[in-house]
Amino acid sequence: MKKMLLALAALSFASAAFAAAPEAAAPAAKTAQQNKMVTCNADAAGKKGDERKAFMKTCLSAKAAPAMTPQQNKMKTCNADAAGKKGDERKAFMKTCLSAK
Fold it and tell me: How many domains does the chain divide into?
């Protein structure tokens, strides 16, 4: 009976050691939300109380601006270059600007 209890105790300790080993060996990568929390926390340095709470709320809920496509970038540039032009002159300018490579 004593041998059986001793073997059972040894087995439970061994299984606990094997279960803990993989977690300690490879830490999990941070998620996007965890990275955002680290960044917002660093930006909130010096803020306290309600001011910090409000800042963290807006910082963590903010969404990253989607990247513009090359066509959108081209449209933005051509639009800025067309400032001051009106009517047919602007239309012709935008047509040539947007079709240029």
Answer: 2
Contact between 60 and 40 under an 8 Å Cβ cutoff? The reply is yes
Model-wide pTM > 0.85: no
Host domain of residue 53: 28-64
Q: Residues 46-66: pLDDT tens digits?
A: 999 999 999 999 998 887 767
Instruction: Using DSSP, state whether 4 is helix, strand or coil.
Output: helix
Q: Do 55 and 74 reside in the same domain of the chain?
A: no
Residue 21 has pLDDT above 70, yes or no: no
What Cα–Cα distance (Å) separates residue 38 from each residue in 33, 48, 59? 9, 17, 11
Determine, yes or no, domain membership for 79: yes
Give domain status of residue 50, yes or no: yes
Q: Is 90 exposed, middle or buried (0-12, 13-18, 19+ CB in 10 A)?
A: middle
Contact between residue 59 and residue 44 where contact means Cβ atoms under 8 Å apart: yes
| d(C-alpha 42, C-alpha 4), whole Å | 55
